[in-house]
């Protein structure tokens, strides 16, 4: 009887242990405790409130390659992202559905990621014991709501790369909650927003295409005609007839081609590898006005259906003001002169404008004719590429007075890179100096050299007359970086909490003073090893004479931290509060004023004090120009354009977005990189990793032996 009872007790204990084992190790999704400072692994109340207010289902499609196909440094972050997605699904209570897809090359999932959602594969170099090469991986999210246009989170919105000049660059997740919640909000209003685009079109729109037969196109573009037809058929149906498609067959005769070029501005294209020129153009006609034609070709080749629809809808948004928030960029461009054969000259900041399009409606404002900033512009980017006229400065002044937000990028030196990599510099005035001084900001007339955060670049070593210079890699203090060194980026400012890195090109220092009604904060700052160089003394480095940085270092008394970017907030005073309004270009062309009517005009600007608003001043305009973009494109180890443009986009979003998203962005994790170990320290750590376990094991053995010896009976 006792034996049977013991058997049943044993069986019962085994069952209880199995149940407890499964209970302990099963995934308990409803029980979570976040012990981190700031609860960074929990959804914010803002996100929870947005999820609670959903009326329809949000679908988040996660296009994530298998861990073995991801870069090694990205793999540890995959569980963090998956945990966050599960948290959204739990908090959504049936209104959020997560779909996980693992696209590989030439699969249906890969085609869906690229053509439907615009998520492109990213390449990375790998090396292991057996082989090395280049792989592609997917790491993106697509959000849809009730049939709305997909909102895509990809690339820099998810992953941030740091230490790009180090042997082992760091990879980490950005503030994914901010990006995903923002995408959900956009998706929720996306369907209505799309209907608004068509609803705002009070006149018919004709999208006219000029496409050669598929047989005459290069093989790379032979699927484009069918894609264009499918996209435009859907747009015509969605618009309920407000948008129509007119397919113009390209002519074969030279006279007809000339007539087509004169009327619509389209000419045959020549693509590398194509046997004959071809047509692959589109233009938009609205209210009898023709837009500039644009080629249906991407920078990397053929456009997907997703990219085509994005491009067409971006134009419709521009035709229907208000569908997108509008950003203005003050920059000059030359349209060219077909009669004289002069080709158009693109604007100097066209790459920045292109990076903003799609998320914002971008308007280029010519500084030569700028007399008033259009009403739909909410944020104005003012690069100080040339001296602004007094009237243009007045337009900027009054734009801020009406509550507009501005990002002003200006320095006092025009530093140019010649084709042979020689550096030349001249002093310049931007026309903004007096206005900024009225707002408490002064731009220094010297160049900041920071020996504490040097950036890498080319150096052209001269080898005598008639000989080509030797191009060498070199670190220059004139190209300071921010974000790597502690204290160079102010992470207490909301939109800089997750900032990675940025780089400048011969910047000027900024000084601030107190102005009634205004408060200023630094955004970027040099290290304590920074000093200033007079551009008149020459800016080209001499690494042979000064191998430590290229320049003769000043005394310690001349080195200190210098502000490179500042934020000014509050009620701004008008520079023209007690001045006569500047003349417009038309007034200046009129010449004489015989009746003296202009002299009788009232003195003082219409708006003398602004509503509370924000202005960001950066002591460098070159850091976001096309030269930086091209440098980053062809020499990514030297360029910071993507990071710098990311700062501008984050600043615009922070200036425009509602308080909800600002709160989420402010929860971003701070960038606190660990100090990198040198080779000797790394070797010592490896030895300790091997030695400590053995030492602990030996101590345990000695302790056990001593305990057994203590228990032996004394004879």
Give me some keywords for this one:
single chain; 715 residues; alpha+beta; seven-stranded mixed β-sheet; five-stranded mixed β-sheet; 16 helices; globular
Explain what the structure shows:
This protein has 715 residues and is an alpha+beta fold. The chain has 16 helices and 30 strands. The strands form ten sheets. The chain has a seven-stranded mixed β-sheet with strand order 15-14-16-17-30-29-27, sandwiched between helices. Strands 9, 10, 11, 12 and 13 form a five-stranded mixed β-sheet that branches. Strand 14 (326-330), helix 9 and strand 15 (361-365) form a beta-alpha-beta unit. Helix 6 (224-238) packs across helix 8. The longest helix is centred in the last third of the chain and has 33 residues, at 679-711. It is globular. The protein starts with a helix and ends with a helix. 34% of the residues are buried. Mean pLDDT is 78; it is low at 163-167, 336-343, 597-603 and 668-676.
Q: Give the low-confidence spans.
A: 163-167, 336-343, 597-603, 668-676
- What value does the Rg take, in angstroms? 31 Å
Let me know the largest β-sheet: 7 strands, mixed
Shape verdict: globular
E-strand count: 30
What integer is the average pLDDT? 78
What oligomeric arrangement do these chains adopt? single chain
- State the helix count: 16
Helix fraction, binned, reads 25-40%
The helix/strand class is: alpha+beta
Question: End-to-end distance, in Å?
Answer: 43 Å
Give the strand content: 15-25%
Query: Looking across the biggest beta sheet, what order are the strands in?
Result: 15-14-16-17-30-29-27
């Amino acid at each position: 009887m006792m034996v049977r009872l013991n058997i049943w007790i044993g069986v019962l204990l085994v069952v209880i242990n199995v149940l407890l084992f499964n209970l302990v190790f099963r995934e308990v999704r409803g029980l979570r405790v976040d012990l981190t400072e700031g609860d960074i692994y929990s959804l914010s109340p803002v996100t929870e409130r947005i999820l609670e207010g959903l009326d329809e289902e949000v679908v988040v499609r996660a296009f994530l390659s298998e861990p073995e196909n991801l870069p090694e440094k990205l793999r540890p972050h995959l569980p963090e992202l998956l945990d966050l997605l599960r948290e959204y699904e739990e908090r959504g209570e049936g209104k959020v559905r997560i779909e996980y897809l693992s696209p590989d090359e030439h699969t249906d999932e890969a085609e869906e990621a690229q053509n439907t959602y615009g998520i492109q594969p990213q390449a990375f170099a790998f090396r292991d014991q057996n082989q090395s090469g280049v792989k592609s991986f997917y790491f993106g999210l697509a959000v849809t709501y009730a049939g709305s246009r997909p909102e895509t989170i990809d690339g820099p919105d998810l992953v941030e790369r740091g230490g790009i000049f180090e042997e082992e660059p760091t990879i980490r997740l950005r503030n994914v909650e901010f990006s995903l919640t923002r995408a959900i909000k956009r998706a929720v209003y996306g369907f209505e927003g799309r209907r608004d685009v068509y609803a705002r079109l009070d006149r018919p729109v004709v999208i006219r295409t000029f496409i050669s037969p598929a047989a005459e196109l290069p093989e790379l573009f032979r699927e484009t005609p069918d894609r264009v037809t499918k996209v435009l058929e859907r747009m015509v149906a969605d618009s309920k007839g407000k948008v129509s498609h007119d397919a113009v067959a390209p002519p074969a005769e030279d006279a007809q081609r000339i007539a087509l070029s004169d009327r619509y501005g389209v000419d045959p294209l020549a693509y590398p590898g194509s046997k004959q020129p071809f047509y692959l153009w589109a233009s938009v006609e609205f209210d009898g006005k023709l837009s500039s034609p644009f080629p249906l070709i991407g920078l990397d080749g053929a456009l997907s259906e997703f990219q085509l629809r994005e491009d067409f809808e971006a134009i419709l948004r521009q035709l229907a003001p208000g569908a997108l928030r509008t950003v203005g960029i003050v920059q000059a461009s030359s349209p060219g002169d077909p009669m004289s054969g002069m080709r158009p000259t693109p604007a100097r900041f066209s790459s920045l404008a292109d990076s903003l399009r799609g998320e914002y409606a971008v308007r280029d404002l010519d500084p030569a004719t700028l007399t008033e900033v259009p009403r739909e512009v909410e944020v104005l980017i003012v690069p100080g590429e040339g001296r602004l006229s007094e009237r243009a400065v007045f337009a900027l002044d009054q734009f801020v007075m009406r509550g507009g937000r501005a990002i002003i990028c200006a320095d006092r030196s025009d530093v140019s890179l010649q084709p042979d990599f020689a550096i030349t510099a001249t002093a310049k005035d931007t026309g903004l100096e007096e206005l900024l001084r009225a707002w408490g900001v002064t731009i220094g007339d010297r160049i900041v050299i920071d020996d504490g955060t040097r950036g890498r670049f080319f150096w052209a070593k001269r080898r005598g007359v008639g000989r080509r210079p030797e191009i060498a890699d070199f670190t220059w203090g004139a190209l300071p970086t921010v974000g790597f060194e502690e204290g160079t980026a102010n992470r207490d400012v909301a939109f800089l909490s997750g900032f990675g890195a940025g780089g400048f090109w011969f910047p000027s220092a900024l000084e601030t003073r107190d102005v009634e009604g205004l408060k200023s904060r630094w955004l970027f700052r040099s290290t304590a090893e920074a000093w200033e160089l007079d551009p008149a003394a020459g800016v080209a480095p001499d690494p042979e004479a000064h191998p430590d940085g290229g320049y003769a270092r000043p005394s310690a008394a001349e080195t200190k931290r210098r502000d490179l970017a500042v934020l000014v907030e509050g009620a701004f005073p008008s520079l023209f509060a007690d001045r006569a309004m500047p003349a417009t270009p038309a007034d200046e062309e009129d010449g004489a004023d015989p009746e003296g009517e202009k002299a009788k005009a009232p003195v003082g600007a219409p708006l003398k004090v602004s509503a509370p608003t924000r202005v960001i001043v950066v002591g460098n305009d070159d850091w976001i120009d096309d030269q930086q973009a091209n440098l980053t494109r062809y020499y990514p180890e030297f360029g910071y354009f993507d990071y710098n443009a990311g700062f501008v986009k984050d600043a615009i979003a922070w200036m425009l977005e509602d308080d909800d998203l600002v709160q989420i962005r402010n929860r971003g994790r701070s960038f606190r990189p660990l100090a990198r170990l040198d080779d000797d320290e790394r070797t010592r750590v490896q030895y300790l990793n091997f030695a400590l376990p053995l030492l602990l094991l030996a101590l345990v053995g000695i302790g056990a032996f001593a305990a057994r010896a203590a228990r032996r009976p004394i004879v």
